[in-house]
Write a structure and sequence with these properties.
Length: about 150
Amino acid sequence: MDSNDRPAHSGPRHPPGDLDDIFGSALNVEESLQEVGFEDGFNDGLKAGLFEGVDLGLAKGFQLGRELGFYRGISLACRRHYGEAITPRLLAALNALDEQPARVPLHDPQDPSLLEALAAVRSKYNIVMVQHRGRLRYGPGESPMSF
């Protein structure tokens, strides 16, 4: 068999440098897909975090509103219960309890004075309970609305 009898090569011959380009482009495809996957995951995470934040804010806002409403209800119930027989000290404590929630910064949940203002409301509530000689305590999920 001489050199003319060799079977013909069935495809284009690539010089050795071209193989690096083929593998390099395969690596670029992998990197590109990783970048696209990262961006998609990041954007989906932002959306999920946004919805989670809204849900958390709604739940915390509801808890705060429920607690402040509880204190308002106690004030109204005490006034109705005692009527004209209310003592001056209890009346002063109830008035202080009624004024305090207006100082809670409900418009800005990041306000550092929020916890201080809420503690002040709770303090006024405790004063009312001392004047009333009641043992009523606020607790989420509980409904101890009797005197």
